[in-house]
Amino acid sequence: MPMPNAFKRGDLVEWHSEAGRVRGVIVKKLxxxxxxxxYVHHASNAEPQYVIKSVKxxxxxxxxxxxxxxxxxxxx
Length: 76
Hints:
This protein is mainly beta.
């Protein structure tokens, strides 16, 4: 049974940052440790991390699933 916070590539998600709420699209699911800019992001099958591209700024971030929640697309 999938976890309630299970995300997949292409999902629109949001999280809180120092600048406020940020929205982005999941680009990749990480299931093994990865080093980015000298910092090791610890990930596993049991606790994956996600590479997310911000919708507004194109900034790329990596977060655990517990920090994310699904977001609804804004109506135009």
